[in-house]
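Shipment paperwork, digital attachment
Item: protein structure file
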Amino acid sequence: MKISNKSMALGLIMVIAAVPAVADPRESRPNDPTCANGGAPAVLVQVAGLRNGTGQVRVQAYGPGAAKYLKKGAWAGRVDVPLGGRRSLDICLPLPATGQYSVAVRHDANANKKSDWNDGAGFSRNPKLSLLGGRPSFAATAVAVQRGPTRLHVVMNYRSGMSVGPIG
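Attachment content:
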């Protein structure tokens, strides 16, 4: 039986399509059980002050240490959670080791995976944010993460005219 190149190529494409893409091991699922189980380094982030319940919230941790703080793709852990109408939520994010971390939270209000003017932002330790002042420093946002969940409360900030702050 002779197999044509066209048939072989089609077969190869079908095999490749059937193999699932390898997920980034730094990404977590919503409702990760690490915080409930304890024992492993993690942050349990209580996100409050969401403008609305649309879109999704992304929580990213940078560290341990300041070397990769807010550098593109250099996060230590990340999770995206659809809001489904919620205006506050608790999010567990497992981390690879104990140490100093900064946690950044973004409300992607239209779930387009881009930062828009109507999206919200917040950081661990809730530093004051500004349109002109740049990003907060690692030192202003760093928290010590040990074994077991480290609890954080992050208040979201939104643009209003030429200022940025919590709503309400």
